Amino acid sequence: MRGPRGASILALTARHVGKTTVAAWAIAHAMRFTPGSLSVIACPAQRQSAEAVRRVKAVLLKAGATLVSNNVYGLELDNGSRVLALPSDDDTIRGLTVDAWIVADEAARLSPELIAALRPMRARRPQARFAMLSTAWSRVDPFWSVWAGDDPSWIRLQATADMPGVPFSEQFLEQERRSLGDQAFKREYLGIPGGGEGSPFSWELYQRATQIRTPHLPLGSAFGPPPPRPAVPIPNPFQQLKQRGVV
Amino acid sequence: MLFNPDDPRTWWPKVPIIAHDVGRSNDRSTAVVGGFCPLNLGGLPLIGVQQLLELPLGLYGSALANELGKVDQFYNRDCLIIADLSNDASYAEVLVDMFGRRVIGVQIGRSGDGRTMEHRPVRNGSVPVYHVGRTFLLNGLLADFRDGSIRFPDGEDSRRAYAQLEALETELRDSGLVYSCPPGQHDDLGISLAMLSWATKHLHFNAWVRPIFDAHQPRRHPPKFSSAAWT
């Protein structure tokens, strides 16, 4: 969450690695050191957004900040900075101008309309950061569409159970694999979206149909334009004029 | 762009095919454009999908046909139109008015192998309508995927279409395998893709494309007669 100002950040994580907590720290930092700023958090339900705001509050109180407004769905500091917990309805969140953080938590479960309503909130504030945090869900949700896309402007972070430093024991992961099943385990802990459990159209078939093979060897010279001829030196015609006495 | 048999975006099929699924009130109409690879590399002919389009919501009749016409125009008005007429039989008339004999109708039901055909009368002629089962369509597409005889450009639309196929639920009944769409989800792009695959393998394909080739033949001028012909 130390991305540069104006960054667009994608974080694909396992369950319970602390993505909401890290987002709360980042928002609290922005509130403390950017007076008058506004940050928003959007989750699939406003109750979840309120939980994230509660974590921001905990960090702010630890840092010794003074709250002048302390609600379930919003906080305000004495320096005028605010954080709001947004509802999941895109019709009711328009009109906000965000200049610190837009955090879409569990972004794979958010509707494309809600994401589309969040993005323009920083249109006139190029320093605002936009973060989509999620565990994997399906291959067509708004989070995965961006994650699997080739837009280089997104900073992609991955904190899944197969990455080093993730706080899960092997015993716990094996227990989860047995109780959840292979597909759900991959989705919840390894960041591999689900789908295709009952359908014979497996994702491997898609990958095979879209694979573009390139020749192993580069094309021979006969496929390209002819090479340029080497330059032949000739005497300077102006010097010849001088030798003939014309000038 | 260099031709690559793995990348259908670099192909220019001789006869582009538009598979057109007509949406009802709550789902979108679609147009999936594809065709055969122009270079036959031996073995099974390669089918390429070039575009997977979702047409705007709330369009019916001639407004929907106009949107389809824009896609057709991009391919020099040479496309074969495979249209799903299961929900709106009257749409055939609009399509034939706009595209003429290039329109082939499909009636998708529970069963049928696509060989049963009826000529459905329309204002200026008739349109052939084939009865084909939904399972038959999807099994044909699945066979193409397994054979490796269908190629896709990877992209958001392709992923969305394939995700619809991936989300299908299957049941084994007495009548055989049945595909069903989970509640709240759509399968219109997937069905269009299956229609495209079905059309490329159909026995009557050469007869379907004949009007398109005929339109490109040089026009024969009628013989000129002089007054001497009456003597």
Count of beta strands of chain B: 10
Low-confidence stretches of chain A: none
| Oligomeric state, counting identical vs distinct chains | heterodimer
Overall, the morphology of chain B is globular
Task: Please give the count of helices of chain A.
Answer: 8
The H/E string of chain A reads EHEHEEEEHEHEHHHH
Percentage of residues in strands of chain B:
25-35%
Q: What is the name of the CATH class of the domain at 8-160 in chain A?
A: Alpha Beta
Chains forming the largest contact: A-B, 23 and 25 residues
Named CATH topology of the domain at 8-160 in chain A: Rossmann fold
Task: Give the N-to-C terminal Cα separation of chain A.
Answer: 74 Å
Low-confidence stretches of chain B: none
Topology:
The complex is a heterodimer of chains A (247) and B (231).
Chain A: E1 8-13, H1 19-33, E2 38-42, H2 46-62, E3 67-70, E4 74-77, E5 82-86, E6 101-105, H3 112-118, E7 129-134, H4 142-147, E8 154-159, H5 170-180, H6 182-190, H7 203-210, H8 237-243
Parallel strand pairs in A: 1-7, 1-8, 2-5, 2-6, 6-7
Antiparallel strand pairs in A: 3-4, 4-5
Helix pairs in contact in A: 1-2, 5-6
Chain B: E1 17-21, E2 30-36, E3 47-54, H1 61-74, E4 80-84, H2 91-99, E5 103-109, E6 113-122, E7 125-133, H3 134-147, E8 150-151, H4 156-166, E9 169-173, E10 176-180, H5 188-200, H6 205-214
Parallel strand pairs in B: 1-4, 3-8, 4-5, 5-7
Antiparallel strand pairs in B: 1-2, 2-3, 6-7, 9-10
Helix pairs in contact in B: 1-2, 3-5, 4-5
